[in-house]
Amino acid sequence: MPKMEGKNFRSPDESKTPFAKGRIDVVKVGGLTINKETLEPGWRWSTHVKPVVGGESCQKYHVKIFLAGRQRVRMDDGTEMEFGPGDVAVMEPGHDAWVVGDEANILIELAEAVKKP
Q: Which residues are 57's β-sheet partners?
């Protein structure tokens, strides 16, 4: 493996739209997989993702760096927080989330960034 490697989300390795009002761009670099999510105004996990994956709430662990827009998250225990540009968040499984306002929420998801052996 080279000692330095770089890529740009303008030319992702993969782009997918697994649910309405959302796009995920995937970059694989240095043995890591890093996702950039673009969630449009009106996006909500319980409305747009739940029908695809099932369950009562999101059961994924997240590590997010927010770049633009705002996102509100409600844990199953009722705890809520709102995140915006520059915020970093760790979210345990058991939550709902939605875009706040009329600007797209853009974030980097690191929870699935796994170093190759």
A: none
> Which of the listed CATH numbers 3.30.70.20, 3.20.20.70, 2.60.120.10, 3.40.50.2300 matches domain 14-109?
2.60.120.10
**Residue 63: predicted pLDDT:** 95
Q: What is the pLDDT of residues 50-97, one digit of tens each?
A: 999 999 999 999 999 999 999 999 999 999 999 999 999 999 999 999
Phi, psi dihedrals of residue 31, rounded to the nearest 5°: 80, 5
Those residues with Cβ within 8 angstroms of residue 45's Cβ, 6 or more apart along the chain or in another chain = 57, 58, 95, 96, 97, 98
52 vs 69: CA distance, rounded Å: 24
* CA distance linking residue 70 with residue 77, whole number of Å: 21
